[in-house]
Amino acid sequence: MSAKLRILVPVKRVIDYAIKPRVNKAGTSVETAGVKHSMNPFDELSVEEAVRIRERKKASVDDILAFSAGPAKSADVLRTAMAMGADRSMLLEHDPEKEGGELEPLAVAKVLKAIVEKENRNLVILGKQSIDDDSSQTGQMLAGLLGWSQATQASKVEFDGESVNVVREVDGGVETVKANLPMVITTDLRLNEPRYASLPNIMKAKKKEMKKITLQELGVDATKRLKTVKVAEPAPRKGGGKVEDVDGLIGKLKELGAI
């Protein structure tokens, strides 16, 4: 591929996947105080894939920029991204506690569009969803705002001359799509196995650039369009029933209207 890749990798700080979320007392959100946070697992795949593209040398990578929007503590996930191999990072500080909640997917897509234009990116690789709100909307919205090609739920990414082949997971199998740069790719779990950030790389990451910006600098309107009415735990699962034999099973299914 003759064009040099200028990759943007958005990452999000979320409650660690190993922690069971709890609804706060007000029933308005998930409790985040005193809870372990880490990088969204799907975003780890994105960082890993960006670094692997460079390592495979199938395409020329000019720069890998990691980006996050969130509280000041989001700097931690950016440092992890740089320790994994990102060249530099950028943090848009947005405190949900002070700003009336997290940025909505459309606002995030608008922010990313501004970063793409500001930093002259031609490839965006991001997780297909974040495990906190599970919206799975940002990548698609970003591609729409930019007017770029998109490939979602990628399980394999290959460069072929001037185009990119992406194998994506669909119900009952896989689908291969082909597109030219610039484009947006969202990552799925089978794409790769993210590396651990080694201690030497963690130390090196401290010397890499981390720029802080604001919504005002980007000129993005993050006005909320959605209102969370209520957040509740799933209802307890009801216990199953037992039958003595096959005839009993058939009778029970008929009783429930299943057959």
Task: Describe the protein.
There is one protein chain. This protein has a nine-stranded mixed beta sheet with strand order 9-8-7-10-6-1-4-5-11, sandwiched between helices. The chain contains eight helices and eleven strands. The protein is globular and about 70 Å long. It has a single domain (5-256), classed as HUPs (Rossmann fold). The longest helix is centred in the first third of the chain and has 16 residues, at 41-56. The protein has helices at residues 41-56, 75-84, 96-99, 105-118, 138-146, 199-205, 215-218, 246-256; strands at 5-10, 13-15, 37-39, 61-70, 88-93, 123-127, 149-160, 163-170, 173-180, 183-187, 210-213. It is of the alpha/beta class and 259 residues long.
CATH superfamily: HUPs
How much is the radius of gyration in Å? 21 Å
What is the CATH fold-level name? Rossmann fold
Q: How far apart are the termini?
A: 57 Å
Quick check: average pLDDT?
Answer: 88
By CATH reckoning, the class would read Alpha Beta
Quaternary state of the chains: single chain
| Coarse structural class | alpha/beta
Q: What proportion of the residues is helical, as a percent range? A: 25-40%
What proportion strand? 25-35%
Spatial order of strands in the largest sheet: 9-8-7-10-6-1-4-5-11
Q: Tell me, what's the shape?
A: globular
Q: Please give the largest β-sheet.
A: 9 strands, mixed
The helix-strand sequence is: EEEHEHEHHEHEEEEHEHH
Number of alpha- plus pi-helical segments: 8
Assigned CATH architecture: 3-Layer(aba) Sandwich
